[in-house]
Specification:
Radius of gyration: 36 Å
Largest sheet: 8 strands, parallel
Distance between the termini: 84 Å
Number of helices: 34
Mean pLDDT: 94
Shape: elongated
C-alpha cells in the first residue's frame, strides 16, 4: 500500500503543477482577452496613431549594474528606508523642514510626497533634500488636475469629471503632457494620477469629480489619454484607487468604506481600466483602504494590507509588475485598523512596494527590520521591492541627478501653451443636454429682448461680461420671486446661470428657492439654464419640461464662463457629453451638438497661431503713448481666425486720471463712421442695383444736376478720385463777430425750428443741412484729377442713402446691421441711450461750441447734421467695431446672416486706381503704395480699413484673417498736435501684431 502511494506521488505533483499553470494562464488571458485593438478612431472613421506602450520592466545591463551597486551599498535599515515616501509641505515652517532633514539623515527614506505650498518653495526644498540624501529621493505629488491641486500660483486644469465630457482624447493627452512638463520643472517623478475609479455613486463623498465618470469604457479612454500624456513626457502615472473607490458612500480619510459588489462585478467594471492601462505600461498603482468582502473575507480588513487584494489580484491576476503604492497610511481607513509601524509592516507583507505617508517612520522601519530578522520577510521579498524602486529611480534619471533650476520656475509654470490648452479644453467640455426648438444658439438678436438672472453665491462677472459682448443683455436681480417675475415681463428670453465656488468636495445642490425660481421663470419665458457646478447638482431639479435650453459648464471659472457664453451665441458649438447620469432624461454620454454661427469668439493667441509673448509688446507701446501724453487712454482689440485674442483698455478718460478706461466704454470713432455706418448701407444698395460703379452723381442727387460735379461717377467718388476738396469748415459761417455761435443759427433750447443738437444747450436751425449740401455742390473742383481724401464723399452718400430709402442713416444702420449683429454699443448721439460717464471726452472746444465735447460728435460738420453724419458721428467700443470688421472679413456674413453678397464686397475691396498711384478701394482705405500711409507697411494688399481723426483705426486683413481695432481720444484736451500719428503708435502696434504671427506648420 505504501509503495503504491509512493508511486502515485510524482503523478499527483504533475497534476498540481498543471492545474496551477492552467489557473495562471486563465488569469493572464483574462487580461489579454479584454484588451481591444489599440487604435483611436476619429470622427471620420479613420484610424489614428496607436496608443504607445510603455516598458518600465525591462532592465538594461547599465541599469542592472547601477541598481545592484546601490542596493549592495545600503545597510538593511537603509534598504527598508527606501520603502517610505513621507509627506512634505512647502507652506510649513522651518520645524517641518528640519523634521524632514532628520528623516532623510537618520532613516534614509526613499522619497517625499508633496502637498500644499508653492512651486518655488517646493523646488527649494527638493534641492535641499536631494543634496543631503545618500540615495536620490523619489518626489511625488497628488496632482490629479495638475499642480494647482496642491500648489498656489499655478494654473488649474479641469477636474477629471469635467475632462470626462471631452470627446477628443488628444486634448486630454495634451493636458497630461502639460501636467508632466510642469511636474518635471519641479523635479517631480510621480503624479498620483489618473483616477481610475468608476463613479457609480452620485453621492460618493470623496471621489465624485475626481473620477472621469460612470462609464467604464469612457473612464478608461480618458485615463489612458492622461497616462499617455504624463508618461510620454517623463513623469510616472499612478492608477488609483485599486480595487475601485467609485461606489463608496463613505470617505476612507475618516473610516473604512464598504464595497458591496460581487467578484464578477468588480472584475468586469472596477478592474476594467486597470487591465487596459496595465496592458499599455502603467507605471504604478495605488491601493485604497477599502473593505471588499467578496475578495477579502476578514471583516473590516483594509484592502491596502490584504495579500488577496494586492498580491493575488493586482500582481498575479492582473499581472502588474510596476510599482505598488499604498494610499496614505495616516488615513483612518488604515490607521484605525493597526497602529503606526504595524500598519506599515502589514502593507509591505501584503505586497505593496512603497508605503505612503507613514505616521511614524522610525517605528515602521524597526517593525519591518524585526520581521526581516525573524524571517517573516525574506531577503528576496525585500530585494524585490527595493530593487524595483531603484529601477524606477534609474528610469527617472536619478542616477544622474541634476538640481532644479529655481530661476526658470516663474516662466515655466504657466506657459502660454498651458493657458491656450485651457481654452481648447473648455470649448470641448461645455455640454448641451436640452435644446428645445433650437433655442441655442440665439440667432436673430434683433427680435429678442434678453434678460439675465443669476443664482448661486459665487462669482459670475466674466459670464455676464461675455454675454454683453454678444447682445444687449439686461441683468435682473430681485430677491422676491413675485417682483422678479414682474421685472421680467417685457423680456422674450431669460438666461439663468447657477454659480457655486469651485471645490471638488463642496456641496453644489440648488436650494428649493432656487429651483422654484427656475421653474416659475421657465413657465412664463423661454429660458436657457447654464450650470457652472458639478453635473450631479442638476439632479435636484424635478423636471426640465418647461426649460428650453440646458448647458453644463461643470466648473465656475473664467474659462467655463467664457465658453458657455460663446456657445449660447453660436461662436462655438457644443461638443461635450455627460460623463455621468443626471436623471432618466439626461443619461451618461448624452450631449447635443449645436450650430456654430460665425460670430466672434474668444481664445488664447497660441490657438490661432499668434505668439502671446510677442503680442504683449503692445502694452508697452500704448503705455508710452499715455505716458508721453499722446492720448489719455484707449482700447485695443486683436482678433484672428474669428477669435478675439487681445482686448485691453488702457489709461483714463482724461489726464486727471480719475476715470479708468473700460472695454465697455464708447469712443467717438470719427471717420471710422464712413466704413462702419455709411459704407455697409451703400453696399446693400449696390447689391440691389440702386447704384453701379458708373452711376453719375447728378443721377444720385438732384442738387448736383447742372453742376460741374454731375458727371462724377460712383467709382471715382468713393475712391477719392473725383477732384473734390478735402473739406469746408462749415461751422465758421455760423459764428458771430466774436467767433461764438450766432443767434441767427443757434438756440439754447430745442424747438421745431432748431432741432439739431450740436452740443449741450446748443441747437442748430433745421434748414442749415441743405446749405451744407448746396455748398458742396457749388464748391470748386480741384484742377487736377488725383487722389485727394475728402469728407464730401460720405456727406454726399448720407443724403443719397436717405433719399433712396426714405429713412435716416442712423435708423438704417441700427436696423440693417447693429441690431442684427449685436453691436449694441454702436450708435449715433449716444447720450440718448447711455450715460455720459462711459464716454471719454474728445476735446475742450475753444473755437466753436466752447465746452467739453463729451457724448456729442467731435466733427463739427457732423454735429451740425444733428450728430448723424455720413463721415462721422458713430460712437462705439472695440468689440463692436471688431464685429463689423469681421462681417467685412467674412464678406458680408455674420451670425448666420448674409448682409450682402461676397461678390459685391470684393468689388468694393478692389483698388481700381492703384496704377495711377491712388491706393483707395471703393470706400475702404487700403495699404500704402509707397513708404507712408495708414498701415505698418506689413498688411497685405487685400487688407482694408480706415483711420479716424480722434485717434482711431479699424483694419482687417483677409490674408492673415486679422482684425485690428484701436480707439482713443487723442484729441483731448486739444486736437491741434497729433502726436499719436507723428509717433506712429497705431502703425507700430499693428507691426507687433504681424510680428506675433507664428509660421504655419
Amino acid at each position: 500500500m505504501k509503495s503504491r502511494f509512493v508511486q502515485l506521488i510524482p503523478l499527483l505533483l504533475t497534476l498540481i503543477v498543471v492545474v496551477n499553470c492552467s489557473t495562471n494562464k486563465v488569469r493572464n488571458n483574462s487580461v489579454k482577452n479584454t484588451e481591444p485593438v489599440s487604435v483611436r478612431i476619429d470622427e471620420s472613421g479613420k484610424e489614428k496613431n496607436e496608443i504607445p506602450k510603455f516598458d518600465y520592466i525591462s532592465v538594461s545591463s547599465a541599469e542592472k549594474k547601477w541598481i545592484d551597486s546601490v542596493y549592495n551599498s545600503l545597510t538593511i535599515e537603509e534598504r527598508i528606508g527606501q520603502l517610505f515616501m513621507v509627506a512634505a509641505y512647502s507652506n510649513k515652517d522651518s520645524a517641518h523642514i528640519k523634521s524632514l532633514d532628520k528623516l532623510i539623515d537618520e532613516q534614509k527614506i526613499g522619497g517625499l510626497i508633496f502637498f500644499q505650498g508653492g512651486p518655488v518653495r517646493q523646488a527649494e526644498m527638493t534641492n535641499r533634500f536631494q543634496k543631503r540624501t545618500k540615495t536620490p529621493l523619489f518626489i511625488g505629488i497628488d496632482a490629479e488636475w495638475g499642480l494647482s491641486m496642491r500648489l498656489d500660483s499655478v494654473n488649474r486644469f479641469p477636474w477629471n469629471m469635467t475632462l470626462g465630457a471631452i470627446q477628443d482624447l488628444k486634448l486630454i493627452e495634451e493636458a497630461g503632457k502639460q501636467m508632466a512638463l510642469q511636474s518635471k520643472k519641479l523635479g517631480i517623478h510621480f503624479n498620483f494620477a489618473p483616477v481610475l475609479d468608476i463613479n457609480t455613486n452620485p453621492k460618493n463623498p470623496i471621489i465624485g469629480n475626481r473620477s472621469f465618470g460612470e462609464d467604464k469604457e469612457k473612464v478608461t479612454e480618458r485615463a489612458m489619454a492622461l497616462m499617455t500624456g504624463l508618461q510620454s513626457n517623463g513623469v510616472f502615472a499612478t492608477g488609483k484607487h485599486f480595487p475601485g473607490h467609485g461606489a463608496t458612500s463613505t470617505d476612507s480619510h475618516f473610516t473604512l468604506p464598504f464595497i458591496d459588489f460581487s467578484q464578477e462585478h468588480i472584475r468586469d467594471v472596477e478592474f476594467y481600466p486597470y487591465k487596459r492601462l496595465i496592458n499599455k505600461g502603467l507605471a504604478s498603482v495605488m491601493v485604497a483602504h477599502l473593505e471588499v468582502p467578496s475578495f477579502e473575507t476578514r471583516k473590516g480588513f483594509p484592502s491596502s494590507i490584504s495579500n488577496v487584494i494586492v498580491t493575488d489580484l493586482l500582481k498575479n491576476e492582473l499581472n502588474f509588475k510596476g510599482l505598488i503604492f499604498t494610499d496614505a497610511l495616516n488615513m483612518k481607513g488604515a490607521s484605525n485598523f493597526k497602529s503606526p509601524g504595524d500598519i506599515d509592516l502589514a502593507a509591505f507583507q501584503a505586497g505593496n512596494d512603497i508605503l505612503l505617508f507613514p505616521e511614524n517612520v522610525p517605528v515602521a522601519i524597526q517593525k519591518i527590520k524585526e520581521a526581516y530578522e525573524q524571517q517573516l520577510i525574506s531577503e528576496e521579498r525585500l530585494a524585490y521591492s527595493v530593487k524595483k524602486i531603484l529601477q524606477f529611480k534609474y528610469k527617472a534619471g536619478l542616477n544622474k541627478y541634476k538640481p532644479i533650476d529655481i530661476l526658470s520656475i516663474s516662466t515655466t509654470m504657466n506657459t502660454p501653451e498651458m493657458v491656450a490648452l485651457q481654452n481648447r479644453l473648455y470649448e470641448n467640455i461645455v455640454t448641451v443636454v436640452r435644446n428645445k426648438a433650437s433655442i441655442i444658439p440665439i440667432k436673430n438678436l434683433e427680435k429678442d429682448k434678453i434678460a439675465y438672472v443669476k443664482l448661486g453665491d459665487d462669482t459670475n462677472g466674466i459670464f455676464l461680461e461675455m454675454l454683453k459682448n454678444y447682445a444687449d443683455v439686461t441683468e435682473i436681480s430681485n430677491s422676491n420671486l413675485d417682483s422678479l417675475l414682474a421685472d421680467l415681463t417685457d423680456y422674450s428670453k431669460v438666461i439663468i446661470s447657477y454659480h457655486k465656488a469651485d471645490g471638488a468636495w463642496k456641496k453644489h445642490d440648488l436650494s428649493s428657492e432656487e429651483i422654484r425660481s427656475i421653474n416659475e421663470i421657465a413657465k412664463r419665458k423661454k429660458v436657457i439654464l447654464s450650470s457652472f457646478v458639478k453635473p450631479y447638482a442638476l439632479s435636484t431639479i424635478p423636471t426640465f419640461e418647461d426649460i428650453d435650453g440646458v448647458i453644463l459648464g461643470y466648473q465656475n471659472n473664467e474659462m467655463a464662463q467664457t465658453a458657455v457664453a460663446e456657445l449660447i451665441f453660436g461662436a462655438i458649438q457644443a461638443k461635450g457629453k455627460l460623463p455621468v447620469s443626471i436623471n432618466e432624461e439626461f443619461k451618461v454620454n448624452h450631449g447635443l451638438t449645436t450650430e456654430k454661427i460665425n460670430r466672434l469668439g474668444f481664445t488664447h493667441p497660441q490657438n490661432v497661431g499668434v505668439d502671446a509673448l510677442v503680442l504683449q509688446r503692445i502694452d508697452a507701446i500704448m503705455q508710452k503713448a499715455i505716458r508721453e501724453k499722446m492720448t489719455p487712454g484707449g482700447q485695443i482689440l486683436v482678433a484672428r481666425k474669428g477669435k478675439v485674442i487681445y482686448q485691453k483698455a488702457f489709461g483714463f478718460h482724461t489726464y486727471d486720471n480719475q476715470v479708468m478706461v473700460k472695454n465697455s466704454d464708447i469712443y467717438d470713432v470719427a471717420s471710422l463712421t464712413k466704413i462702419v455706418s455709411t459704407l455697409p448701407n451703400v453696399i446693400q444698395l449696390y447689391d440691389v442695383k440702386k447704384v453701379t460703379l458708373e452711376t453719375k452723381l447728378g443721377d444720385m442727387l438732384p442738387v448736383f444736376k447742372g453742376t460741374d460735379k454731375e458727371n462724377i461717377i460712383f467709382k471715382d467718388l468713393l475712391s477719392h478720385y473725383a477732384r473734390l476738396q478735402a473739406w469746408i469748415p462749415f461751422y465758421k459761417a455760423t459764428l458771430n463777430d466774436e467767433k461764438k455761435p450766432s443767434d441767427k443759427y443757434y438756440r439754447k433750447l430745442y424747438s421745431e425750428d432748431f432741432p439739431f443738437q450740436v452740443a449741450e444747450n446748443l441747437y442748430l436751425r433745421k434748414d442749415y443741412q441743405d446749405s451744407i449740401l448746396s455748398a458742396i455742390a457749388t464748391s470748386k473742383l480741384l484742377p487736377k484729377k488725383e487722389y485727394k481724401y475728402s469728407d464730401f464723399t460720405f456727406i454726399i452718400l448720407k443724403h443719397f442713402i436717405e433719399k433712396s430709402t426714405g429713412k435716416t442713416l442712423d435708423e438704417l444702420s441700427e436696423k440693417n446691421f447693429y441690431a442684427k449683429i449685436g453691436a449694441t454699443n454702436t450708435l449715433y448721439n449716444p447720450l440718448k441711450k447711455v450715460d455720459m460717464s462711459i464716454i471719454p471726452p474728445s476735446e475742450e472746444d475753444a473755437y466753436f461750441r466752447y465746452q467739453t465735447i463729451q457724448g456729442y460728435v467731435h466733427d463739427m460738420t457732423a454735429a451740425m447734421e444733428g450728430g448723424v453724419g455720413g463721415h462721422a458721428g458713430i460712437f462705439s467700443n472695440s468689440m463692436d467695431m471688431a464685429k463689423i470688421m469681421q462681417l467685412f472679413l467674412q464678406k458680408g456674413n455674420y451670425g448666420g446672416q448674409q448682409f450682402f453678397t461676397p461678390e459685391t464686397f470684393d468689388i468694393f475691396n478692389t483698388c481700381y486706381y492703384c496704377p495711377e498711384g491712388n491706393r483707395r478701394g471703393i470706400g475702404f482705405d487700403k495699404p500704402q503704395l509707397g513708404k507712408s500711409g495708414p498701415t505698418c507697411g506689413c498688411a497685405s494688399m487685400t487688407s482694408f480699413g480706415h483711420t479716424g481723426f480722434t485717434g482711431t483705426m479699424a483694419w482687417a486683413d483677409p490674408d492673415k484673417e486679422l482684425v485690428y481695432i484701436f480707439l482713443s481720444n487723442r484729441t483731448y484736451p486739444n486736437a491741434d498736435k497729433n502726436l499719436l500719428s507723428q509717433n506712429n503708435i497705431r502703425e507700430d502696434i499693428q507691426q507687433v501684431i504681424y510680428d506675433a504671427i507664428l509660421p504655419e506648420n
